[in-house]
Amino acid sequence: MHVTIKNLLKIKEIVKTNLSKERKSSIIPKIIAVSKTFKIDHIMPLINHGHLDFGENKVQEAVEKWTEIKKQNKNLKLHLMGRLQTNKVKIALKIFDYIHSLDSKKLADKISNQQEEHKLNTKIFIQVNIGKEVQKSGISENELPDFYNYCNNLNLNILGLMCIPPLNEDSTEYFARMQELNKKIGLEELSMGMSADYLNAMKYGSTFLRIGSEIFGQRG
Fold it and tell me: Which of 146, 209, 149, 144 is nearest to 175 (CA)?
């Protein structure tokens, strides 16, 4: 058995065990295998094993890696984790099934226009800058209610919120606030938790776990 499959199965077992311990939800979080920078031959064992959800950070890399693979595997779902520039929206919507990084009205407008033109219904998460970090994208907590209403008026398919907590800080406070924000707006899905903190994210209702290095190993 390929090492990536072993790693994935181990994570699934850990998730299942911790879910039953928490007893807060019967919903098993979706594991997104974040395959950015890894070549397709490193990813194929997971595809052949039947894993369906993969994450990429860059639009062009995703197009080059996944266009043919997705044609052959219609059930595969590709998630965009990285920042989406407005000039790449048209290309991104053709290859990605989920966008986890909606962070501005300008981007929302562009996605809406492209979706209407090409009859698409991409699943979207609003990225929240929960740590108020100047170097990170995302909507502020104060702006979130108005921004969500703005997206609704554009008929965007908003599933939930997404965050990346500050590095080297305890994520608990940030995940708890995200859970509250999600509830206030009335959304069901939460995209939070990566290799280092996905168990903590689960405690606060995350339904999409973005796991890279724990599955694929450290990037070079």
Answer: 209
